[in-house]
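WARN retry 2 of 3 for item q-0093 after timeout on previous attempt; input resubmitted unchanged.
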Amino acid sequence: MEQGPRRYLGHEASGRGRLLMRPDITLLDETRRTVVILNTTTRKRIEGPDPLAALFAADLYQMTAYAHA
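OK item q-0093 returned
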């Protein structure tokens, strides 16, 4: 378990990284390959008749970016 991996979501034409992503917790297998990425700041209790109402668009964008990366 470690914080990271630190990766950039995109790059400028010059090659400079943009939008640094650094998840709070990353679980790695024995070959150090990422298995699960966790971000403790977006943990939410999802309950009620409309579970999606508890989510913010920013949370969904963040989860999508981590999954894509």
